[in-house]
Specification:
Strand order of the largest sheet: 8-7-6-9-10-11-12
Structural class: alpha/beta
Largest sheet: 7 strands, parallel
Oligomer: single chain
Distance between the termini: 22 Å
Order of helices and strands: EHEHEHEHEHHEHEEHEHEHEHEH
Strand content: 5-15%
Radius of gyration: 21 Å
Number of strands: 12
Helix content: 25-40%
């Protein structure tokens, strides 16, 4: 059975794949283009794609009877795949939940601390030779301990962020989420039904919701307008959940305290105006960039491919 892996992956993952499949590894780290996706659907039994490989309805329409019967996605997010169109073409889709939870939550805390304590500004100051020594009012930021954290999306990752913030920093937790949650490990967390009320009442807000048509531009100009002037917005989910133009306007006007971003609406494109915002911390989608995490994600994707090969239920269908 032929397996296409669309990006170079850790050696451990490639070894596991080659033990079970005839493997082709695409050499580029750039997203697949339309012709590559069509060729993959025609020529391979299983495709292991990832973020940026946009298997949308138009691609499946151009290849209505694909040889490939599984897209074993490398990553928990799969908004780059039109799952309904894939299923209509007879192609199943799987993902890698669980493997990404702790690493992504850790990255959220990294961004929270960097943004609150203006760490990126300070690092730039040192590197450019502009630092003239310590003084009492230099780069005064937000003391994170004891503040109120709002979480938009209280799934696995949202809960992992909340636990780190509450038990590590004594933060009060408020959240909004699509589905009612029982949170026995966070009994003091306050669920809210109104997003604007959440945004207005929190010192830091973290976006941890999945990207869906319903969450596109969930954080828009009106939502940003209710935030407190010192409050910080952190996004470790997907870029298009935030109206990037509205966020840039808020940062430029300093109507909010700052933003910490690991994802962007049109990534890898990052607007020059956003780059120019000193009150923004900008990371290049590092959410899971630990070797053991990426290996675990890859092995999970291979396990889904192997289940397909063996005709058993997929461990992680979407």
């Amino acid at each position: 059975m032929r397996l296409l892996i669309t990006r170079p992956l850790p050696d451990e993952v490639l070894g596991a794949a080659r033990a079970e499949f005839e493997v082709t590894v695409r050499g580029s780290n750039l997203p697949m283009d339309r012709e590559e996706m069509l060729a993959a659907l025609r020529d391979f039994d299983v495709i292991l794609p990832t973020l940026g490989d946009r298997f949308q309805a138009e691609v499946f329409a151009a290849c209505p009877a694909p040889r490939a019967k599984l897209l074993a996605n490398f990553g928990v997010g799969y908004n780059h795949i039109d799952v309904a169109a894939a299923r209509a073409a007879g192609v199943a889709v799987s993902n890698t939940p669980g493997a990404v939870t702790d690493a992504t939550a850790d990255l959220a805390l990294t961004l929270m601390l960097m943004t609150a304590r203006r760490a990126a500004e300070g690092e730039r100051m040192v590197r450019t030779g502009d630092w003239q020594g310590w003084h009492p009012t230099q780069l005064l930021g937000l003391h994170m301990s004891g503040k109120t954290l709002g979480i938009v999306g209280m799934g696995r990752i949202g809960q992992a962020i909340a636990k780190r913030a509450h038990f590590g920093f004594g933060m009060a937790i408020r959240y909004v989420t699509r589905s009612k949650r029982d949170l026995p490990e966070l009994p003091e967390a306050q669920g809210m039904t109104d997003l604007h009320a959440l945004m207005a009442s929190c010192d830091i807000v973290v976006i941890a919701a999945p990207a869906t048509p319903e969450t596109h531009h969930l954080i828009d100009a009106q939502t940003l307008a209710v935030m407190q002037s010192h409050a910080l917005l952190i996004n470790i989910a997907r870029g298009d959940i935030v109206d990037e133009a509205a966020l840039i306007a808020a940062l430029e006007a300093r109507s909010i305290g700052g933003a910490g971003l690991d994802v962007y609406e049109f990534e890898p494109e990052v607007p020059a105006r956003l780059i120019a915002c000193e009150n923004a911390v900008l990371l290049p989608h590092l959410g899971t960039n630990a070797l053991e995490v990426r290996a675990e994600m890859g092995l999970m994707a291979v396990a889904n491919a192997l289940a397909h090969k063996q005709g058993t239920p997929l461990p992680n269908p979407v």
